[in-house]
Amino acid sequence: MKKHDEKVIDANGRTLGRVASEAAMSLMGKTKATFERNVYSGLPVKILNASKLKITAKKLEEIYHTRYSGYPGGLRVLKGTETAEKKGLKELIKLATYQMLPDNKIRREMMKSLKIED
Hints:
Layout: E1 7-10, H1 16-28, E2 45-48, H2 57-62, E3 64-68, E4 75-79, H3 80-87, H4 89-100, H5 107-112, E5 114-116
Parallel strand pairs: 1-2, 2-5
Antiparallel strand pairs: 3-4
């Protein structure tokens, strides 16, 4: 794979969904003329100023993330406030972007080229 340019997104004062959707579009490669659904041709994305993301307390209460261990009773539900306290806003951006990508084998490769900095 040849070396690509890197898309830089500044999250300072922007909302979570807008930053995540812009990152997802670039990771998928939909911003390029050579877009193909079955081939990873996206740009690596770097998100700056993740700690200065604009997100309200009400939105943090509405957001939730689930994890399932595969065992009966193994479903864990975390609210956005708990995730932000434990892992920070970086993890919220990462999870939001992950959920906006297509659910296929290429998604893991796309997420490897996402870098988030404070």
